[in-house]
Amino acid sequence: MFVEAGISPMDAIQAGTRVAAEMLGWGERLGTIEPGMLADIIAVPGNPLKDMSELERVSMVMIGGKLIKRPGQCSSVAGLLTIPCDK
User: Fold this and answer.
1) Rounded CA gap, 43 and 40, in Å?
2) N or C end of the chain: smaller count of CB under 10 Å?
3) Which domains are present in the chain?
4) CA dihedral 50, 51, 55, 60 (to 10 degrees)
């Protein structure tokens, strides 16, 4: 949506991470990946800066420092979020 409106892919990703945390007043605790910060991390097979649809192909999920989904593994998080298997 942001990219379709002319915003760069990096700015769109930051809008959902660092900028969102700052707007909520949580920028000192989360929103970036660095020592001392709380972070949930995903990995995708390609480069979302070249193709934002790569963010739809999540291959790894780490929440609270715990690996929730490994590449090729199907899983769900607390029964609420289903992460589809890689195809």
Assistant:
1) 10
2) C
3) 1-34 (no CATH), 40-87 (2.30.40.10)
4) -60
19 token code pair:
């900028």
Q: What is the pTM (predicted TM-score) of this model?
A: 0.73
Q: How many residues does the chain have?
A: 87
| 54, two tokens | 């790569």
Q: How confident is the model at residue 72 (pLDDT cuts 50, 70, 90)?
A: confident
What DSSP string describes 18-73? HHHHHHTT-TTTBSS-STT-B--EEE-SS-TTT-GGGGGS--EEEETTEEEE-TT-
Q: Which two tokens stand for residue 87?
A: 């195809």
